[in-house]
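So, who can interpret the following?
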Amino acid sequence: MTAPVSWQPHKYLPMTAEERDEMLRAIGCSTVEDLLADIPVQVRLRRALNLPPDLAEADLLAHLRQMADRNGHADRLICFLGGGAYDHWIPSAVWHLAGRAEFYTAYTPYQAEVMQGELQAAYEYQSMLCELTAMEVANASMYDGASAVGEAAVMARDLTKRNAVVVSTAVHPQYREVLRTYTRHLGIRIVEVPYQAGLATPERVAAAVGEQTAAVIVQSPNVFGCIEQGRALAQIAHEAGALLIVAVAEPISLGLLEPPGAYGADIVAGEGQPLGNHLNFGGPYLGMLATREAFVRRMPGRLVGATTDREGRRGFVLTLQTREQHIRREKATSNICTNEALNALAAGIYMAALGRTGMRRVAEVNARRAHYAKQRLCAIPGIRPAFDAPTFNEFVLHLPVAPGDLNARLVEYGFLGGLALGRWYPDLADGWLVCVTEARTRAQIDALADVVAQVVRAS
């Protein structure tokens, strides 16, 4: 037997000048300054850091809280801002479960025998997303809604062997920007179809579709909150031999509206943040992608499947993964290397907690309260709706004041106002996109309307 090694506490010894010089020589540098050669001299700090004396932990936390209180806090504002990210009420059970260490520290489930919990969670998420969208297969999530739309376009190109994608300008502008980035070097031509009366009208879409159209991309509810004519658009795409891709930025709407798979969508891509994920100052969010079983071999990302082991017990495995660092490499369907598993887990818990009936009730409350808010705001002289199309929980108003100016005043009264659309749509320079979810009360809606009326009267 070997003698036990006596444990000695580590003692920190500063580096000597000789050791420093030896390390620099080993990496081909003469001085420490050589390590900073890529940093412009004019932006380097040329003096010692001006740090205060060290503080006890309690004193340090109090100091940090005092500094943080100097910032504006979004949670102190009543939110009427949507535009692709939505302030929904999230049951406390969602993140009590999703925040367990077994989930938030888990890595990619390569070894199925030790990752059954994470794999089952992804499988349940996929299953519920298929039910929500009325599609046949869904992957274990993508990065976010915009990149999921880009991946769907590439998928359509591969399936149809065509190189043009028709997209409505009523699809969120940031989704379209990412779409162009995704396809710029892939030989895919993007054809934008101007919206009309807040919608992607079948007539304009039909005029843009041709023999090389791989897919038609629409969003419903679209960026204006309007509900598209999905069945007619699907027919136009299919008659031309193209696919219909439906982007869904507000999946809560599917608790009430006809799901894309029911009216002919071939691929559903979008944002899952409203399903149990907080706004989080912009992320991380959750990309959704679902499609028909016939297209599963061209689907990007990962697919978790159910199986049985040698003893007949039910188990879960990674059935499909199309990562570029695997043997397929240049033949891979996508360069997506990972997913948003924790956010997808939260979405799965949220959908399971609410169930079919709960999802419908939440969607109904969204629609009712948005309708009430629209009535209250349109009763203010000078304010009128921009479009007549049916909407879900967002709507566009024409304002008699600049939307940006109105939003600035609303912050003073404790409101986070709607989205000023002029930055993306010059024809809607006076357009104000208002969002109302189930998290907004009738009293809050009334208070918003009173303040807006006051600001409009004073302008």
Summary: The radius of gyration is 26 Å. Residues 341-378 form the longest helix (38 residues). The chain has two domains: 74-87+356-458, 92-352.
